[in-house]
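Comment thread on ticket #2218

A.B. wrote:
> Attaching the input chain for the structure job we discussed in standup.
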Amino acid sequence: MAPEQLPEYKEAMEAMFPRLIPGLQWLTRDYVEIGGRKWLHLEMTSHALDTDIHNHLYNTSFDGKVLMFGFNSTVKEYPKVKEMLKKSAQSIKLSE
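C.D. wrote:
> Ran it. Output below, let me know if you need it in another format.
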């Protein structure tokens, strides 16, 4: 995927994820900058087998492909780990 295809990729994820992920509820679908690079940030909650999950997915173009990082916790534990998850995401560094 080329960097300019990120909006198309966003549309595809927004259409596909609700069909694939049980109980998906979108919280955020926006762009952020991390390390000088544009990332698609998808934040959602969903159902897992025995608990609900809070997910942050960060997607970007890298070397002609999609690179995705995921940070998640249970919905119950999320308030305790929210800042650590965000700090972890902000620490992403890529070298070309």
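A.B. wrote:
> Thanks. Noting for the ticket: Strands lie at 25-34, 37-47, 52-62, 65-74.
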